[in-house]
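seq:
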Amino acid sequence: MQYLTRKRRLRHATCEPGVGVRARSRYSEGDRRIMRTTNGESISGWDTARQYRERMPWMRLLKILAVVTAVGLFLVQMQGVLVTVSGSAAGCGGDWPLCHGQVIPGQFTLHTLTEFGHRVLVPPVTLCVLGLSFGMLAFWRKRRETVVLVILMIVFLLLQAALGALAVVYPTSPVILALHYGVALIAFASAAVAALFIFGQQGWDTLRDRPVSRGYTRLVWALAVYTYVVVYLGAYVQHTGNQLACRGWPLCNGSVFPGFAGVVGINFLHRFGAFLLTAGVIWLVLWSWRLRAARPDLYWGSMAAFTFVVIQAMMGAYVAWSHASVPSMLLHGGFVAGLFAALCYLALQVMARPRSARQVAQTASTSATPLHAAGTAGAASGTNG
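struct:
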């Protein structure tokens, strides 16, 4: 009898126009408690599972997973740089995925520890990538940028592992080794952009509905592609062992223009490309300054790219002055990863959101206004009563 009385009160409360959303949810929650505790037995098992799903902070967990995945891929990339600059590529011999024929090597030298640590880090990061991909598709599977980011993360992570295995088992040319670094860079940048995409929901992601000029879009995409070319050229210089072909900085062997011939020319070409990249990022910042009122996401993204490119130039000088020390090479590789990720994020932001996403936002905004008005009217009627 008590259950039937509460059920009538619930039906009356949900039909009463003056009762707000909180009151309706309170009645429904009380009704669920009675359904579960009538005669001391559980009547509805699905209700408990539904409440569990509703109470779990899935979006918060997805944000944490996105940060962990991006940081993990960054550490994998930096560990790979450390393996290269420390000469630890053969630290596990010629075996893969085993290390000296064992799952865990019996003896650890410094080179073995460096290479084995790089390999051990890959499996948990792979699980994070798969979990993040599943979560993004669960929330935004109809968004084309989500699908593209998921494909980039998974494909380039697997490709990175395959190229790493080939580098160990078979003799690999500097071209392939440089490509290995470039593939790892794309895997990290896609995870970083995915994390920024998740954190930007109901925020900077909605700013994509404000279009920018075609010239600005072309500049952002051109800088992102050009940065990848400059990074690949730098990785090629590193894997050929010609980091110090140009001694001194900013001059190259005491010359402003030593030419583009030989190993000195390749090294100088990388420096010249970095100079043009810095000039392009400065141009991007000046253009973004004029858009900062309507598009603060583009302005702050360009400022992040400018910060990374300036520090990257300083780290390039540090490499030359320190004779390619291990810390200088790690810092050089780390900041260029941040630069590329910032430009990739800008490349996403200059693209307009899909029409379905804009329609969902418009529907939510139009439906929120009557609901808010009804709640206000209910509160006012309760006060007057």
